[in-house]
Amino acid sequence: MPSYDAIVIGTGQAGPSLALRLAATGMKVAVVERGRIGGTCVNTGCTPTKAMVASARTAHLARRAADFGVTVAGPVGVDMARVIARKDDIVAQSREGLRASLLGSENITLIEGQARFRSGHELAVGPQLLTAPRIFINVGGRAAIPALPGLGDVPYLTNSSLLALATLPRHLIVIGGSYVGLEFAQMFRRFDSAVTIVEMGPRLIGREDEDVSAAVQAILEGEGVAIRTGAHCIGVRRDGEDIAVRLDCAEGAPDLAGSHLLVATGRRPNTDDLGLAEAGIHIDERGHIVVDDQLRTSVPGVWALGDCNGHGAFTHTAYNDYEIVAATLLDGEPRRISERIPAYALYVDPPLGRVGLTTAQARLTGRSVLVGHRPMTRVARAIEKGETAGFMRVLVDADTQEILGATVLGPGGDEVVHAVLDLMYARAPYTVMQRAVHIHPTVAELLPTVLGELQTLE
Ligand SMILES: Cc1cc2nc3c(=O)[nH]c(=O)nc-3n(C[C@H](O)[C@H](O)[C@H](O)COP(=O)(O)OP(=O)(O)OC[C@H]3O[C@@H](n4cnc5c(N)ncnc54)[C@H](O)[C@@H]3O)c2cc1C
Ligand SMILES: NC(=O)c1ccc[n+]([C@@H]2O[C@H](COP(=O)([O-])OP(=O)(O)OC[C@H]3O[C@@H](n4cnc5c(N)ncnc54)[C@H](O)[C@@H]3O)[C@@H](O)[C@H]2O)c1
Hints:
Elements: E1 6-9, H1 15-24, E2 29-33, H2 39-43, H3 46-63, H4 80-103, E3 108-112, E4 115-119, E5 122-125, E6 128-131, E7 134-137, E8 141-143, H5 159-162, E9 171-175, H6 179-190, E10 194-198, H7 210-222, E11 226-228, E12 231-239, E13 242-249, E14 255-258, E15 260-263, E16 267-269, H8 276-279, E17 302-304, H9 315-330, E18 343-346, E19 352-356, H10 359-364, E20 369-375, H11 380-385, E21 391-397, E22 403-409, H12 413-426, H13 430-434, H14 446-451, E23 455-456
Parallel strand pairs: 1-2, 1-7, 2-3, 7-17, 9-10, 9-15, 10-11
Antiparallel strand pairs: 4-5, 5-6, 8-16, 12-13, 13-14, 18-19, 19-22, 20-21, 20-23, 21-22
Helix pairs in contact: 1-9, 3-4, 3-6
């Protein structure tokens, strides 16, 4: 049986970097991948969606050209084949770059196939058996498909298949009004599809504060996206050329029909076909691998990184898992998941940048909280860009003066929020930023102003 110093299962956002680090120390490393190198982010997640979001924004701005005094001769058209080809090029570059770096390491053996545990330190990949004293699981997740009556009888789409669609949907129905659903909804509306979002919760992106949900809903509705909240999709069926969706809802029509259906109702970890029970590796009730603060599973010598451990659902959290394991195992500088401050962006346009606590979460801490708020209508850069939807908010602990969280929905919101994030990592009092001189004209220049106008959170 081939024996390695380490085996990495999956080439998502943690595995390849870890394999390269381990190999650089002289270890013989096997990397097993059953699908495309780069996993979700590179192939069916961040990279392709953000490439297509860029195309959609260009179409949107071209339609708004007259607002800026610019003349566009004729109507704005979207060539879906070229949008897809551009996206495919960007994805291929990223994937091939990663493949080349793995193949370029003489200590790494890349094995294509599905890995399955036979015991704590033994894996089967097809007919091949592998063993190593250290095994790193980076198997990620996939779209969770709900048990909706009729779903098996209609050609529904997921984040993966929608990215390969070469023709524009006449009417795209999106089930699920959260990260995946909203990014695709706005994108396809801007490509000129009719789009309806169906969300069973009382509002979109239910984990965010109510005013964030309301502002994002207003942005999408302003572009012609139809939104049905409080609408639980309870069944689907074919209706001639269309797909009909049945809703359990207090308001609005209980039936809806569209040409295409996107299921964006969450993700599930790829842990069901990994033989974890045979290895004695514990999972929780949602199928996530149980890990400690440094990514160790219940079996000594086996770690789980990325989406499959349920401690993050983002590329940067998966990559940080790699950093924690590498620092702890190789650098003698132990790091921990609990040191991580929640941070993420939602790539609707304008983007939503979020760090730390929401207002609702801050209230629950029982601390005395100060809040600063400013609408984008009072931010010079947003006015100059003609993009005044959204707002920024910062939450501060009144006693320690530390920043608890921030929201920036507006131009560059995903970038601007990092100024706050770094101050939070520094555990510096908010007064440091309040007195900093920021560059004019930027959205970030208003952060010190907002911090100078803090009020008690009621
Ligand atoms: C549409 C969409 C957009 C997103 N946009 C963003 C974004 O903008 N920013 C952000 O931070 N995050 C985004 N995410 C989330 C991000 O893609 C994931 O959090 C990230 O890819 C997680 O990486 P990972 O390392 O856990 O695993 P993954 O990237 O999922 O990779 C896991 C790999 O393991 C392989 N594998 C699984 N099981 C086995 C097995 N048994 N044997 C061998 N190989 C196996 C898979 O084939 C896959 O290649 C998005 C997700 C989606 C779906
Ligand atoms: N920008 C980013 O970083 C980004 C982008 C996309 C995805 N992601 C990652 O992907 C993960 C999954 O995102 P997601 O949006 O698929 O899932 P989610 O779990 O965030 O949201 C699913 C939504 O579907 C709704 N829903 C479920 N069943 C329904 C039904 N039958 N009828 C109507 N509504 C229903 C839920 O109420 C919920 O709002 C996120 O947690 C995120 O980490 C990140």
